[in-house]
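Hey,
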Amino acid sequence: MPICPGTAVTVAGRPTPPRAEGDIEWAIRAVLDAPSHVSPPEGRITSSAAVLRGYIKRTAAEVRDAAAALPVGDPRRVAAEDSAAEGLHRAEKLKLGNGLRSAFDCARALALVAQELRDHKEKLCSGGSPC
């Protein structure tokens, strides 16, 4: 039976790509690629959220350390430090809540932060900074 009656949609979102060790893309894509009108299955949301939280906590520390090598007034440093602080706040304080919609919204917020931290890390570490 289709998930959305009256449509041919039988699965929520695209299938999640296989996990590679250390690859965060699967968790980000599992949440962000899901259609906004159909939440992914609960198991995918909870597993993605757990992976995203761990990634955010590790990467925020790495981004902060790499940003510390930049001059104090550098806009890249400010943006990276702000992103790391926001990421840690969300990883520690946001809860999945009651209901699938609430859990999906929380996982989406975590995925966006993880994506932003990943981008900061790539930019900061490509310049020869230790990461």
